[in-house]
Specification:
Helices cover about 40% and strands about 15% of the residues. With about 250 residues, the protein is an alpha/beta fold. The chain has helices at about 5-10, 25-35, 75-85, 100-115, 130-140, 150-155, 160-165, 175-180, 190-205, 230-235, 240-245, and strands at about 40-45, 65, 90-95, 120-125, 145-150, 170-175, 185-190, 225-230, 250.
Length: about 250
């Protein structure tokens, strides 16, 4: 089976994808690199939408694995954020405009915001300067809380974003535990540990002779809610017992 490190993938990218950072770009690079060597994805993109597999039930070709569409979590994140900061009249959504899932994420949050009668402000950023500018805009728009979209480019700026959220006193929810561990207020997202375990099992089945083309694309079933009470205290937020009861982990 194929195992491409990031440097190898970068050298093999399709030129038409340069300058973008979609969630499934490394997977696309691996798929483009070979049509014969089996590939097991642990992707956070929509593998069907971007044409990497024919369907979830029968992927076809030489690739299978897991499609972790983290953009679908945004409405749940809005609900959790509303429980944590119930008086926030305006919610911000920070997304990377170069991510192929941004439009899908935005649609989901917009619909959820309409249902809750919450005003939504969309902010787009993909690098250090744009992120700084986005937080200046948040302050000007008097945004009361923030959803940070799941994205590899934003993940790489985790420390900057968490620090800015603290500086501007904007309570924010993030897409995975690493953010809460880094000082973020709350995170809700896919638990990658079972995904990686199951991916290993898929690899084993392929090594025993099964064809990736016939192995269904799996969806995540385990999600993690992590609260950082130290950060909540710094923000002056009292976390309701009902919300704490939902948490899989509490950082103190």
């Amino acid at each position: 089976m194929i195992n491409l490190d990031r440097e190898t993938i970068n050298h093999r990218k399709n030129p038409s994808s340069r300058g973008r950072s979609p969630q499934s770009q490394p997977e696309a690079a691996a798929k483009n690199a070979t049509s014969t060597i089996p590939i097991v994805f642990t992707s956070s993109g929509d593998l069907v939408e971007v044409g990497l597999v024919a369907s979830l039930a029968r992927p076809g070709g030489n690739a299978t694995g897991f499609s972790n569409i983290s953009s679908d979590l945004a409405p749940k994140q809005l609900d959790l954020l509303s429980q944590l900061v119930p008086h926030a009249g305006t919610i911000g959504l920070l997304v990377n405009p170069n991510n192929q899932l941004t439009e899908r994420t935005t649609r989901g949050v917009e619909e959820a915001a309409r249902v809750k009668s919450v005003k939504l402000e969309i902010l787009k950023a993909s690098d250090e300067d744009e992120i700084d500018a986005a937080f200046v805009s948040l302050a000007q728009l008097q945004v009361g809380a923030l959803i940070v979209g799941s994205d590899a480019a934003l993940d790489r700026r985790r420390e900057q974003i968490v620090a800015l959220a603290s500086r501007y006193a904007v309570p924010a929810i993030y897409g995975n535990r690493a953010w809460a561990a880094a000082g973020g207020l709350i995170s809700y997202g896919i638990d990658q540990r079972p995904v990686f375990r199951e991916a290993g099992k898929y690899a084993g089945r392929i090594l025993k002779g099964e064809k990736p083309a016939d192995m269904p694309i799996q969806q995540p079933t385990k999600f993690l809610l992590v609260m950082n009470l130290n950060t909540a205290k710094a923000f002056g937020i009292t976390v309701l017992p009902s919300l704490l009861a939902q948490a899989d982990e509490v950082i103190e």
